[in-house]
Design brief:
Elements lengths: L2 H17 L2 E6 L7 H16 L4 E6 L10 H6 L5 E5 L22 H21 L2 E8 L4 E4 L13 E4 L2 H10 L2 E4 L5 H6 L5 E4 L1 H6 L8 E3 L7 E7 H5 L3 H35 L3 E3 L3 H36 L1
Helix pairs in contact: 2-9, 4-10
Amino acid sequence: MHKSSLAALALGGLALTAHAQTKWDFATAYPTTNFHTENLTRFAKEAEEAAGGKLAIAVHPNASLFKAPEIKRAVQGNQAQVGEILLSAYQNEWQVFGLDGLPFLASSYGEARKLYRAQKPVLEKKLGEQGMMLLYAVPWQPQGLYSRKPLNTLTDLKGSKWRAYNPATSRIAELIGAQPVTVQAAELSQALATGVVDSFMTSSATGYDSKTYEHIKYYYNAQAWLPKNAVIVNKKAFEGLDKAAQDGVLKAAAAAEERGWKMSEAKDREYQGLLRKNGMEIAEPSPQMKTDLRKLVGTTMLNEWVEKAGPEGKAIVEAYQKM
């Protein structure tokens, strides 16, 4: 064979190799500085490396590719191959998605890990049926209570404009007599600046990311629940990788999950310190408020959830409570 023909074949081979690189879009709703985004950016890099150059993952933070409520459907339809979702935002679709959004069911990192262990097999099965796979999940920090005015009892929240971001936070508003207003994380700063909301429950991370301290003075360390973000991948997109690349992605996901849980806990202390440094008053809820929250909100919502979730949900809660 002529040398030029051999060269052409070699070049063709190189072109095919370059063309064979799979490209994934990764949609997330949070800013680049958020610990979840920092963690998933590292996951994307490690997954690319582990796939040996066969995979390129483009991370799209801050709801720049899809807004938070659109991400799950986008991954399901392969418009984005990977996405990060807040599980509890999809409770209306399937009750088990909202399990970690139930107040005071699991209110520490140790309890949240147990709840995840009880929930995970059912979660993986459901996502599989929907054409997706769970890569990993990481919790937000325990949810604290933010308010423009000081609070002594739950009645102090009556009539306040309460930020809701999922079915559970809307239900809390109803139970405490507040007015729910749906505001996603990316719009929270604007909602605070324009007075759309004046009370809510969220993590110290979101509180700091949203510069809550510019508008809200009081933060109560209620440790109400630890909602999880899940990183999901389109099943066909994942199956399109060769075995070595698949194994590499799963290995990077396992590392991201372990790292993310540790980051979440360390960042809670850091973010609370930053909120305080920026002028927020951080306090424990009064004993009366704690009791009222657990009874009026926690017990009521767990009973309602079990009724809606049926035997499947009840079995998960019982498995968790036995751990």
